[in-house]
Each structure stands twice: as structure tokens, then as C-alpha cells.
Design goal:
Number of strands: 6
Order of helices and strands: HEHHHEEHEEE
Helix content: 25-40%
Low-confidence stretches: none
Structural class: alpha+beta
Length: 175
């Protein structure tokens, strides 16, 4: 449990989802009164593949073209389109997006790391998660014809900073 959640439970405050109005309907959170702060988020994902498929990727001989660079560009596009894809996400003026895809032989996967930043009133976690997810989907799409056993996951937020709650890291979070 998060520290904030524990504190709320200790005070007897009910947990509530921020995107639900009092009548239970979905509602976009009003962030107009929040201060503008520098925000950053990092998400990761992985596409698990056969060693033969990783060989094709390393040799840049996959049938659909260069897998890693294509997936990196797709992840960048995904981050920029997050508010179009996720109904209650605010459109944000992103200042940087970095998506890095690498072959990880030890885990027989393509490892994906997406980092997104902006100065804004709300965080960029969804943009980082969308970037990592779209990059993973792109890897899958580019190799599915040669590796039917390909699988995606886990995809997760691993770091965030900025805003009222400050920095957070998955390494510090209790499960």
C-alpha cells in the first residue's frame, strides 16, 4: 500500500477514485488550480521472443524492417497521442520523450524504457505507459509472422517525479 493510502485509512477517510463524480459518472479532473511543476515519468515493458527472432532483430533482417528504431518512433508517437487514446487524460505540452528498445538476451526479450517530461499541472505517467505499450505492440506487430509465441509484459510505471506528492519509485513501493 502507498503511504498516502495508509494515512487515509488511518484517518478513517474512504479511498475514492479521482475520475468519478459524486453520481458515479466518469469525469475529467479539474487541474486548473494546481501549480505548474516539472513532471517526469518512466515506464518499462518487454516483448518476450525466441532467440531466433532476437537474432533477426539484431541483424536488422526482420521481414517488416528495423524493429527497434520503428518501435522507438511508434512509442514517441504514442506518448504524443495519449489524450486521444485515454478518455480522461489531459492533453499536455510534452517537453521530452525518450523511448529506448534494446535486445536483452538474458531474458529473451526486447526491453523497452520510456521517459516522458513536461512542465504542467498534472503528471505524465499515462504518457510514459502509453509510449512503452505502443512500442511493445509495434515490436509484436513487426515479428508476429516469424514468432507466434511472442508475448508482451509486464508493462509498468517505475518512476515519477513532480507535483504535490513528489518523487516515487517502484523499488520503494510496498506491494
Amino acid at each position: 500500500m502507498s503511504g498516502e493510502r495508509v494515512a487515509r485509512e488511518e484517518r478513517g477517510e474512504p479511498l475514492r477514485l479521482s475520475h468519478l463524480a459524486s453520481d458515479g459518472r466518469a469525469s475529467m479532473v479539474d487541474v486548473g488550480a494546481k501549480p505548474v511543476t516539472d513532471r517526469r515519468a518512466v515506464a518499462t515493458s518487454a516483448v518476450h521472443l525466441s532467440q531466433a527472432t532476437l537474432d533477426l532483430i539484431d541483424a536488422q533482417s526482420a521481414p517488416k524492417g528495423p524493429v527497434l528504431s520503428t518501435a522507438e518512433l511508434a512509442g514517441i508517437q504514442g506518448a504524443k497521442r495519449t489524450s486521444d487514446l485515454i478518455p480522461l487524460c489531459h492533453p499536455l505540452p510534452l517537453s521530452s520523450i525518450a523511448v529506448r528498445c534494446t535486445v536483452d538476451r538474458a531474458t529473451s526479450s526486447v526491453a523497452i524504457r520510456a521517459e516522458v517530461a513536461c512542465s504542467g499541472r498534472t503528471g505524465v505517467e499515462m504518457e510514459a505507459l502509453t509510449a512503452a505499450s505502443v512500442a511493445a505492440l509495434t515490436v509484436y506487430d513487426m515479428v508476429k509472422a516469424v514468432d507466434r509465441g511472442a508475448s508482451i509484459g509486464p508493462t509498468r510505471l517505475v518512476e515519477k517525479s513532480g507535483g504535490a506528492r513528489g518523487a516515487w519509485s517502484a523499488e520503494e513501493a510496498p506491494r
